[in-house]
Design brief:
alpha/beta, Rossmann fold, 7 helices, 7 strands, 38% helix, globular, disordered C terminus
Length: 216
């Protein structure tokens, strides 16, 4: 990857395999990569299935220590130029697995980072969860979620989709906004993205260094 290339970390919190959450994540990533390519910007996309790290995430919450595999995921996410975050909607909000992963990140790790939010559920009546639950979460972490959040209901994946804005249009709009946000920023450092020193400020406790819950 060249020094001007950008990295996007995609986190998918789907619980099944395959899942509509991952399908949405892949489409958002592909659309964003296409938008960046049209701007002459090289991009590298890393997709992480949180279900593969569910036990490690729980152990991190309980012990304050991130096992190596989870630590690699954390480092890749927080050192990326932008994040695409997709979660299923359970009980009118993001999934517990999604929130647990966010909880193991350092509170300052996503500051200023562009984020494209995606969510999916069985019916379109859950679409508002993006704006009353997920967007405030990233805003609290001082990330910069783009204006368009992309929600997909089960009907969006079929020929009988009846939403005002078809899924493909929403994906393209969100991808364009994320690509614009990435293009306005300087590329992330070319130093080792898996070195904790690259995303944690000086003076952090050892617990913070490993994604723990220092300060509680």
């Amino acid at each position: 990857m060249t020094s001007s290339a950008r990295r996007i970390a995609v986190i998918s919190a789907g619980l099944s395999n395959p899942s509509s959450t991952r399908m949405l994540a892949d489409r958002l990533a592909a659309a964003t990569a296409k938008q960046l390519s049209e701007r002459g910007i090289e991009v590298e996309v890393d997709v992480f299935e949180l279900r593969d790290h569910a036990h490690d995430i729980t152990n991190n919450l309980l012990t304050g220590f991130a096992p190596p595999a989870l630590e690699s995921v954390i480092n890749a996410v927080v050192s990326a130029d932008a994040v695409i975050a997709v979660t299923p909607i359970f009980s009118t909000s993001y999934s517990g697995l999604f929130k647990s992963f966010i909880d193991v990140l350092d509170p300052d790790a996503l500051t200023g980072k562009p984020v494209l939010i995606g969510a999916n559920a069985g019916t379109a009546r859950h679409s508002l969860a993006i704006d009353y639950a997920i967007r405030p979460l990233f805003t609290y972490l001082h990330a910069e979620p783009v204006s368009t959040g992309v929600f997909a209901a089960s009907s969006d994946w079929g020929a009988s989709a009846d939403n005002v804005a078809p899924l493909g249009e929403r994906i393209d709009r969100g991808a364009r906004e994320l690509a614009d946000a990435i293009a306005r920023r300087e590329p992330a450092s070319d130093s080792d993205p898996f070195d904790p020193a690259n995303y944690l400020g000086e003076g952090r406790s050892f617990g913070h260094l490993l994604g723990g819950l220092a300060g509680e």
